[in-house]
Design goal:
This protein has a single domain, classed as Thiol Ester Dehydrase, Chain A (Roll), CATH 3.10.129. The chain contains two helices and seven strands. Strands 1-2-3-5-6-7-4 form a seven-stranded antiparallel sheet, covered by helices on one side. A hairpin with a 4-residue loop joins strand 6 and strand 7. It starts with a strand and ends with a helix. 24% of the residues are buried.
Length: 153
């Protein structure tokens, strides 16, 4: 399933209503439970010397990992984000970003993501912890499970 920028969403990373935003598009792979995106960032996102700014790299990883929450049918926010900058990410380079879940613990969802170049080299890696904020009883889950999860987080 293609996840295109929503024209009413002002999110800097994936919203379509933000004229200064990145307009990131992703593909939701339901069978592998992964989110994948292809993108290219121009000079307006650079830090120094023709390389993408580290904060922008973190933003892309946060966006792709945040989309993984869709597989759980929940709304969750970033609680922690750790980024490893392994190699410089060049301006105007075709890139791939991918993320998946590695663990669920109560209301905490743990995801990992990577940014790779077209040759498959990992340029940056992220780990994120997302906390579910939307009540799940509206999604058909029982209140006993919700209470138990709230105690463990």
């Amino acid at each position: 399933m293609l996840l295109e920028p929503n024209p009413t969403n002002v999110c800097f990373g994936c919203g379509g209503a933000n004229t200064r935003g990145m307009l990131l598009t992703f593909e939701q792979d339901d069978s592998a439970r992964r989110i994948v995106g292809n993108f290219r960032l121009g000079a307006e996102y650079q830090g120094g010397g023709g390389f993408i700014h580290g904060g922008i790299i973190a933003t892309v990883l946060d966006e792709v990992m945040g989309k993984v929450n869709r597989f759980r049918g929940v709304r969750a926010v970033t609680a922690e984000l750790n980024v490893e900058y392994l190699k410089p990410v060049r301006v105007d380079e075709d890139l791939i970003v991918e993320a998946h879940e590695v663990e669920k613990s109560g209301r905490n969802l743990h995801h990992v993501g990577e940014i790779r170049n077209q040759a498959g080299q990992v340029l940056a890696r992220g780990r994120g912890r997302f906390v579910i904020i939307e009540p799940r009883e509206s999604r058909g889950e029982n209140t006993a499970e919700i209470a138990r999860d709230n105690k463990s987080s």
